[in-house]
């Protein structure tokens, strides 16, 4: 890319001295005459070219041969532009090719020598005067050469033949037309001969007189071939590894042969005046020129770049059938193939995936694009100055500059290394010092594990939240928003601002992105991540290793804003984002909520957009009400247009005459847009100074001008060619490379028919479009194209929006679009690779090529194991869907593991999900109802990837785990899904990745009831406050598919409003901080554009009004206790005062029209507006008012008696107004407070009251969609009433709601259903009831379905209006999205009979079976690693085969089995019940009961060694703690004991001889001898105990019986000798959650927050840390060798570590918390309990992992990952830290 200085200039945004972008194509120009080298070139095209192309494909390159011997249109010959076109193409190849660009074929023929198309004016005048002296026909010369003053410098150009001889190109098939054509052609031959003779003789004379140079002289004599060779070789600066030359001569050429003229130059002889034919005499002048050319070429090329051959003549000239000629062709072909490949290898730079290189490459693309945009920039000084002023404006308090500078310095980049530790670490150090002193006094060794000040190991320090904290900016700049109509010149203005910013803000760095012009700038995430990395690169900042920019997008936006806020205050930064509307809709880019609204005063941000596209402008205006920051781009002034025309012409060395310019400016007046004047001027570049432009057609709009431009192209290149070329470009997804476009046109028969009208294909076996045709067409549209990288290749597509729209409208119409997509499918599928595709020419030339091929490449999914065909991954799914080839999409993509894995790995999992989503949407739109299996399979895969996307994104190999875990090892719903599972298994076993593979389903099934899981901080404290207990924390707006959620204390200090898009896989739209906390509910009044947030305070509550579209708060001047709103009014209350506001166009501005103080009590409790805004209901504690909101006239009052004192707050869901204006509210006063009152607002009439119990007032109410029934929830029951008469019609049995209901919602159309969250099933399950037919409700409702998944109390349910989707929010901080349509469909199929009779018995039986599903409490792998043992809550003991998962034994022991232990000898299995009962000892071989041990207390801890079993009961009080020691051989009790101390026997362990038990006093380990008195040990423990009233979370004894430890939430591992002495204290910042001794007793491995600590016992130090978990590590298990370690965490990850090499070898992410986990002794199997999915999950090692564990394979670690003290895997995403000067080890993360 360049040297360090160049890279720095690119990163800092300088437009000057930019290098070119690296090409991704090898584009080779074939230079030869038209006839003599055809056989060689055809042979190469048929053989070596296809091989080279395949080789290039594997390198990620396109390979193209450009041969202008074919494809030059007749029009080019007629206007004499052929040579110019060819030389332009040579330059294009030279600039754009990687490696070789030119191959010369030079035989015995010099080739066509044509008249020069133009002669410089001074040179022409010299020749003219000499021609006159020589008595040549100067009148003829002046007739054919006319002066063009529009060229710079002026030239005399040869007139197009048809301008003087109009019938020269007459294609009319009539005889008279043919005669006229022949006549004109003969006339031209005669004229051209005369002109050539005149010019050559004049040139000879001029050279003789030294009036022209040799180079000027040569152009009147040289052939097109020499012109090519001079440009491509002789005059080229660098030919090494870039050009080849082949010389071939005939040793005995027969000049008398009829075909000799094809292979050598022969003189012409005159038959009669004006008519000549070829003679049999050698043209010696041509021969001399050829020989001179030969010498010139050889003089500049190295020997290895040339090949010389001599052939002998045959009757066919060159004859491939001749043996000698055949050998010649084979050798030539091999030499060409070998040479080209070597050149490519020698010049191709290695493809870099380095992040820094990618940033530089992306920035260079945008700088080059901007450089092109400002080439023709003129004027616009006023708008540029306005932008500069707005960028420079500083806002905020004008405080002392010095204090501001100090403040900014304090807030400086927290990502940089800190020179001083913060106060927090000072505190940690002080505590560490105190503990060290205390331990030293006791003679105890103290070691601190976090002396490296690793914040990430501390649960109290959330580094991710620290990084996104905003600075308090006292002075700040605001972003500038530039907007204007399409084609108004926004992009060029933004480019100019980028250039001028260097002078506006000296020393500034500039970051510019022209959005949509590259793949990296097409999505908002890509843009922000790219800018973040560039800022870090500019500022020399290293991004923290835990920062995942590909993860939570909302976090990325916050980090972006925080990074800007903390940018170095002494540096200046300018960021420009052009054309926001060009971003894809992903990540909700158009909402503009990601745009920072306040910036440090040294940072300047400008964005541009269209005013109406995608509502970008409207959305930012809603968020950002500062009109001065919005700058509209006006139409281009006339004087600026004049300058633009001049500049465009100058750039092309052209100009226009004054009359022509006046004409252009007159036309410009029709539109006034810069793009319009550009289109006009580009067309005007072809004008000569003598061109009459009166009839120049142009439309009144940009689109019309573009259409006329397309008309010109169609006239020039043929309608079919242009239609197909632009059709393919418009139909593709991300653009097409030149080679792809050439291939596609070659596959299209209609295009080939149009190309081969006047001549036949040169090679009938390999028919392709001549590359020159497409090259010329693309060259003519290059001004309006952009080049971007897609799949590693440079592709082209329209840049200007109007060109794309016009092209699609014009060329994608009727059946043409389907045909184009079908051809694209064939191409990217490789359908026609090396296959015959017959072509029949039926127009002028009528020939059938039945066996011809098209020379298109193979399109494998992989070029090599590490290189994928990314272009295929991107394009093929899109075109399959577009042409409705759903079965192919289903078979080859959706149900193909190879495809899914490649797409997820080389593109992204989100892109694969988008493909599947698009297929489903297209099938829905097409009404393809017959392919239900295909549709359901695609839907299943879509759901599977959506649920597992985060895991797959972090590790692509986990796609296999997700498929096997979600679908199971045998998914039988469809054959293709079964094939997908089998293919996944095969890949998993053969891949070079270590995997833990699920043996059966252990993750939530995509065919299950849960669609998705949203992680959100949805939490509400329980308690007496009814608002907090029942507040609603989410709101669903079905009109736009947005779910708004209140996230409580998300950053530990503030609540957040988060919004999720239900139409986009529930992606996070944005998450916005609320400037207050204690939010208790969110409410959306019907027919309103607002949402209301209710907050709780100690002395009451208050409401906030929020705009529902932007979540911006509406400022209301008074303190508001209650708010409500409709489409017309906003009503709020302050104490007992009610105020009404009318909503204006600006929703933020409210005007109070009326206020009224009401006599109802201290303050208003609730406000309601009717849906039609005619009635306002005001609810006080003991009074209800109905008012007119327009006049505040009181229409009705319901007051309690003055003696009533009962106060029960009215919940919002009780106070409700229906669509037909019926008011429901809780009764007022004594005797009525337990009832629900109904009041007709229209008739001002009380209807009736619904009441159940004087003791249990109603909590909330739910209405059926028909408004015919309402369900009322009381303290412990719920009932359904008929709203017409208030009578009770249904009730829920106490058996199903005896402890109350937290949520309830009625639904259904013809039937009545209820969805609830009752306490009967632990408050965590959702229960669905059938309540009867709408005309005949059941007296007692019947439950039929229980949905499991939440682990904590459910706070809220939302059912969509179509009743297909249910949302449940829980205190487990998840929102689950349920497939409710499936629930109801199954209900109808299972429980409703044909006559709609309800089978209640079956429904209840089915429901009871669901809620009685037992759980697995304990799981253990047998000592021989052959079986897995399960202890279940229903008392069942189950044994399963570890290799197959089959049940081989099951026995019911009646009582819930709480613990399960295998004896160290492996001969016994110990089952310990949950409550006090017998402990059962089983024979591990026969599973027969050997012993029953009687205990009279519930066992909380147990351990076994040497056939001794110790059990204990924990207790907080001293008399509650007791334990027993048994012999499991004979069942005898060896010892019973009580620990008369607090907090003991929570954990127990026993030494290997069974002589000593270890428990604890508080958090200190205590040795208890099995035989004898333990007073001595107890005294030692009490003497050394350093913590009081601290719980112990684990104890253990080392295998060598020398040490024991206890662990505690205080962060310490306390190690004692088995003699009772306190040996060492191993301390950490985090709570210690698990620990274990290594089998060799050398190490203790302890676990805390995210971190695993490995302590060396002999050295008494920390050896190293291991990190890959994201939360507390709860389990640690060793295999028998001690080499492999299994850890599990609250983050739901299982990780297998190689402890010797200190690396992770495999991992697994579960769907649930991992409460029971075990590792087999051979480390090849892991088991855990997947809650609510299966009784056990078995994970087995794939072949690679098994081989690694056996020591047969070794996971390689690259040298770059080796540190002086430790090693780490690159995929751990963690940074290796240096070891401190102390003996504390470094971290392996």
TrEMBL record:
* Domain spans labelled NACHT: 478-613
Q: Where are the WD repeats?
A: 1347-1381, 1666-1707
Entry keyword set: Repeat, WD repeat
Check the record and name the Gene3D superfamilies matching this protein.
1.25.40.370, P-loop containing nucleotide triphosphate hydrolases, YVTN repeat-like/Quinoprotein amine dehydrogenase
Q: Which residue ranges traverse the bilayer?
A: none
Where is the signal peptide, in residue numbers?
none
Name of the featured protein: NACHT domain-containing protein
Q: Name the species this protein comes from.
A: Mytilus coruscus
């Amino acid at each position: 890319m360049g040297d360090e200085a160049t890279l720095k200039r690119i990163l800092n945004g300088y437009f000057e001295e930019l290098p070119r972008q690296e090409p991704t194509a090898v584009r080779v120009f074939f230079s030869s005459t038209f006839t003599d080298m055809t056989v060689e070139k055809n042979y190469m095209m048929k053989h070596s070219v296809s091989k080279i192309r395949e080789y290039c494909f594997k390198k990620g390159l396109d390979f193209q041969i450009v041969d202008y011997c074919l494809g030059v249109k007749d029009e080019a010959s007629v206007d004499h532009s052929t040579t110019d076109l060819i030389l332009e193409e040579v330059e294009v190849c030279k600039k754009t090719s990687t490696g070789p660009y030119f191959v010369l074929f030079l035989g015995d023929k010099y080739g066509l020598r044509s008249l020069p198309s133009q002669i410089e004016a001074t040179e022409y005048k010299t020749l003219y005067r000499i021609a006159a002296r020589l008595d040549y026909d100067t009148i003829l010369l002046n007739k054919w050469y006319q002066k063009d003053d529009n060229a710079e410098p002026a030239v005399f150009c040869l007139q197009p033949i048809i301008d003087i001889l109009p019938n020269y190109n007459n294609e009319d098939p009539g005889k008279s037309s043919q005669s006229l054509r022949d006549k004109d052609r003969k006339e031209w031959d005669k004229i051209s001969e005369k002109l050539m003779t005149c010019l050559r003789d004049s040139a000879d004379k001029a050279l003789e007189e030294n009036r022209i140079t040799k180079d000027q002289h040569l152009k009147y004599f040289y052939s097109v071939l020499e012109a090519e060779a001079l440009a491509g070789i002789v005059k080229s600066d660098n030919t090494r590894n870039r050009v080849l030359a082949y010389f071939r001569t005939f040793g005995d050429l027969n000049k008398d042969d009829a075909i000799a003229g094809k292979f050598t130059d022969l003189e012409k002889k005159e038959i009669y005046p004006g008519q000549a034919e070829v003679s049999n005499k050698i043209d010696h002048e041509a021969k001399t020129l050829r020989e001179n050319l030969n010498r010139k070429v050889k003089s500049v090329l190295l020997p290895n770049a040339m090949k010389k051959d001599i052939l002998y003549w045959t009757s066919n000239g060159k004859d491939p059938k001749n043996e000698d000629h055949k050998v010649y062709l084979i050798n030539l072909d091999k030499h060409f193939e070998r040479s080209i490949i070597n050149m490519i290898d020698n010049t191709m730079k290695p493809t870099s995936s380095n992040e820094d290189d990618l940033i530089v490459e992306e920035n260079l693309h945008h700088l080059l694009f901007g450089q092109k945009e400002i080439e023709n920039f003129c004027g616009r000084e006023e708008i540029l100055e306005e932008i500069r002023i707005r960028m420079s404006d500083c806002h905020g308090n004008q405080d002392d500059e010095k204090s501001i500078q100090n403040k900014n310095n304090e807030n400086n980049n927290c990502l940089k290394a800190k020179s001083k530790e913060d106060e927090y670490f000072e505190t940690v150090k002080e505590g560490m010092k105190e503990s060290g002193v205390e331990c030293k006094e006791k003679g105890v060794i103290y070691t601190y594990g976090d002396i490296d000040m690793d914040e990430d190991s501390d649960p109290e320090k959330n580094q991710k939240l620290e990084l996104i904290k905003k600075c308090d900016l006292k002075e700040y700049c605001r972003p500038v928003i530039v907007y204007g109509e399409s084609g108004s010149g926004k992009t060029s203005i933004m480019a100019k601002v980028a250039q001028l910013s260097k002078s506006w803000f000296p020393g500034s760095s500039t970051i510019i992105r022209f959005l949509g012009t590259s793949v990296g700038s097409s999505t908002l995430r890509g843009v922000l991540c790219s800018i973040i990395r560039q800022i870090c690169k500019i500022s020399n900042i290293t991004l923290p290793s835990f920062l995942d920019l590909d993860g939570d997008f909302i976090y990325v936006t916050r980090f972006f804003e925080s990074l800007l806020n903390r940018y170095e205050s002494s540096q200046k930064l300018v960021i420009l984002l052009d054309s926001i509307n060009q971003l894809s809709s992903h990540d909700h880019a158009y909402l503009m909520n990601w745009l920072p609204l306040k910036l440090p005063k040294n940072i300047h941000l400008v964005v541009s957009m269209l005013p109406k596209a995608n509502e970008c402008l409207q959305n930012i205006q809603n968020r950002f009400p500062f009109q001065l920051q919005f700058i509209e781009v006006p139409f281009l002034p006339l004087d600026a247009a004049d300058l633009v025309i001049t500049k465009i012409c100058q750039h092309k060395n052209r100009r226009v005459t004054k009359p022509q310019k006046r004409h252009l400016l007159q036309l410009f007046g029709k539109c006034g847009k810069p793009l319009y004047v550009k289109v006009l001027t580009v067309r005007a570049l072809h004008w000569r100074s003598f061109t009459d432009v009166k009839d120049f057609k142009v439309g009144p709009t940009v689109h019309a001008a573009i259409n006329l431009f397309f008309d010109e192209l169609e006239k020039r290149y043929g309608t079919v060619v242009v239609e197909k070329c632009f059709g393919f470009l418009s139909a593709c997804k991300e653009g097409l490379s030149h080679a792809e476009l050439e291939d596609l046109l070659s596959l299209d028969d209609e295009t080939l028919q149009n190309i081969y009208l006047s001549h036949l294909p040169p090679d009938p076996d390999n028919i392709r479009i001549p590359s020159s045709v497409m090259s010329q067409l693309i060259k003519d549209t290059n001004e309006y194209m952009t080049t971007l990288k897609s799949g590693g290749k440079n592709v082209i597509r329209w840049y200007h929006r109007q060109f794309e729209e016009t092209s699609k409208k014009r060329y994608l119409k009727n059946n043409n679009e389907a045909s184009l997509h079908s051809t694209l499918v064939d191409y990217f599928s490789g359908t026609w690779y090396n296959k015959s595709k017959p072509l029949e020419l039926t127009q002028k030339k009528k020939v059938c090529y039945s066996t011809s091929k098209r020379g298109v490449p193979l399109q494998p999914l992989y070029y090599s194991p590490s290189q994928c065909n990314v272009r295929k991954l991107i394009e093929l799914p899109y075109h399959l869907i577009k042409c409705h080839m759903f079965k192919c999409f289903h078979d080859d993509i959706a149900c193909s593991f190879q495809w899914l894995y490649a797409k997820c790995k080389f593109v992204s999992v989100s892109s694969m999900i988008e493909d599947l989503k698009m297929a489903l949407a297209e099938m829905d739109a097409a009404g393809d109802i017959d392919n239900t299996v295909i549709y359901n399979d695609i839907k299943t895969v879509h759901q599977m990837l959506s649920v597992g996307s985060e895991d797959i994104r972090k590790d692509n190999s986990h796609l296999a785990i997700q498929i096997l875990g979600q679908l199971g090892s045998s998914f039988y719903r469809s054959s293709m899904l079964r094939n997908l599972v089998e293919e996944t298994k095969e890949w998993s076993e053969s891949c070079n990745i270590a995997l833990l593979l699920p043996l059966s389903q252990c993750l939530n099934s995509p065919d299950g009831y849960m669609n998705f899981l949203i992680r959100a901080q949805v939490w509400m404290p329980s308690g007496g406050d009814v608002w907090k207990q029942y507040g609603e924390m989410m709101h669903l707006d079905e009109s736009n598919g947005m779910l708004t959620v209140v996230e409580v204390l998300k950053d530990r200090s503030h609540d957040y409003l988060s919004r999720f898009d239900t139409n986009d896989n529930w992606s996070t739209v944005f998450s916005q901080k609320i400037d207050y906390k204690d939010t208790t509910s969110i409410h959306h009044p019907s027919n309103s554009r607002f949402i209301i947030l209710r907050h709780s305070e100690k002395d009451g509550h208050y409401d906030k009004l929020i705009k529902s579209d932007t979540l911006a708060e509406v400022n209301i001047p008074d303190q508001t206790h209650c708010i409500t709103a409709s489409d017309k009014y906003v009503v709020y209350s302050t104490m007992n005062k009610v105020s009404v506001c009318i909503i204006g166009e600006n929703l933020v501005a409210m005007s109070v029209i009326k206020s009224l103080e009401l006599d109802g009590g201290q303050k208003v409790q609730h406000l309601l507006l009717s849906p039609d805004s005619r009635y306002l209901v005001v609810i006080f504690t003991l009074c209800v008012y109905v008012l007119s909101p327009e006049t505040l006239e009181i229409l009705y009052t319901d007051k309690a008696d003055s003696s009533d004192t009962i106060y029960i707050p009215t919940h919002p869901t009780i106070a409700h107004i229906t669509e037909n204006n019926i008011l429901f509210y809780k009764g007022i006063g004594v005797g009525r407070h337990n009832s629900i009152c109904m009041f007709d607002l229209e008739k001002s009439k009380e209807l009736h009251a619904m009441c159940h119990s004087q003791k249990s007032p109603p909590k909330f109410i739910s209405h059926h969609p028909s408004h015919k029934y309402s369900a009322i929830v009381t303290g412990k029951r719920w009932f359904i009433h008929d709203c017409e008469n208030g009578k009770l019609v249904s009730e829920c049995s106490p058996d199903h709601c005896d402890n109350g209901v937290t949520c309830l919602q009625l639904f259904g159309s013809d039937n009545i259903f209820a969805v609830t969250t009752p306490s009967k099933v632990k408050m965590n399950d959702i229960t669905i009831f059938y309540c009867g037919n709408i005309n005949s409700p059941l007296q007692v409702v019947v439950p039929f379905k229980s949905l499991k998944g939440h682990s904590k109390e459910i706070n809220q349910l939302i059912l969509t209006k179509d009743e297909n989707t249910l949302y449940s929010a829980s205190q487990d901080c998840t929102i689950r999205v349920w497939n409710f349509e499936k629930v109801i469909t199954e209900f109808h199929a299972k429980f409703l009979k044909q006559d709609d009779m309800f089978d209640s018995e079956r429904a209840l039986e089915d429901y009871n079976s669901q809620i009685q599903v037992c759980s697995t409490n304990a799981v253990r792998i047998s000592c021989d690693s052959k079986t897995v043992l399960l202890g279940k809550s229903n008392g069942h003991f189950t044994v399963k085969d570890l290799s197959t998962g089959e049940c081989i034994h099951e026995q019911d022991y009646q009582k819930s089995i709480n613990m399960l232990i295998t004896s160290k000898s492996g001969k016994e299995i110990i089952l310990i019940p949950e409550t006090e009962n017998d402990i059962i000892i089983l024979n591990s071989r026969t599973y027969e009961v050997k012993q029953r041990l009687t205990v009279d207390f519930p066992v909380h801890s147990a351990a076994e060694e040497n056939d001794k079993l110790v059990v204990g009961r924990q207790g907080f009080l001293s008399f509650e703690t007791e334990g027993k020691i048994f012999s499991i051989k004979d069942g005898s009790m060896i010892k019973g004991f009580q620990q008369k101390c607090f907090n003991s026997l929570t954990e127990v362990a026993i030494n290997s001889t069974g002589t000593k038990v270890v428990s604890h006093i508080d958090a200190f380990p205590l040795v208890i001898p099995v035989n004898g008195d333990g007073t001595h040990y107890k005294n030692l423990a009490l003497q050394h105990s350093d913590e009081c009233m601290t719980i112990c979370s684990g104890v253990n004894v080392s295998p060598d019986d020398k040490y024991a430890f206890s662990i505690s939430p205080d962060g310490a591992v306390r190690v004692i000798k088995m003699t009772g002495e306190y040996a060492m204290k191993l301390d950490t910042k985090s709570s210690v959650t698990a620990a274990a001794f290594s089998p060799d007793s050398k190490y203790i491995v302890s676990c805390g927050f995210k971190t695993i600590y490995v302590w060396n016992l002999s050295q008494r130090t920390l050896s190293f840390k291991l990190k890959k978990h994201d939360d507390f590590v709860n389990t640690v298990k060793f295999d028998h060798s001690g080499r492999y370690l299994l850890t599990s965490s609250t983050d739901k990850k299982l990780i297998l570590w190689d402890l010797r090499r200190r690396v992770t070898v495999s991992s697994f992410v579960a769907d649930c918390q991992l409460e029971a986990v075990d590792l087999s002794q051979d480390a090849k199997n892991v088991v855990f309990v997947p809650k609510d999915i299966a009784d056990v999950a078995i994970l087995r090692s794939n072949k690679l992992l098994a081989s690694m564990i056996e020591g047969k394979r070794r996971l390689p670690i690259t040298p770059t990952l080796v540190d002086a003290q430790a090693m780490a895997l690159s995929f751990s995403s963690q940074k290796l830290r240096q070891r401190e000067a102390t003996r504390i080890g470094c971290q392996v993360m």
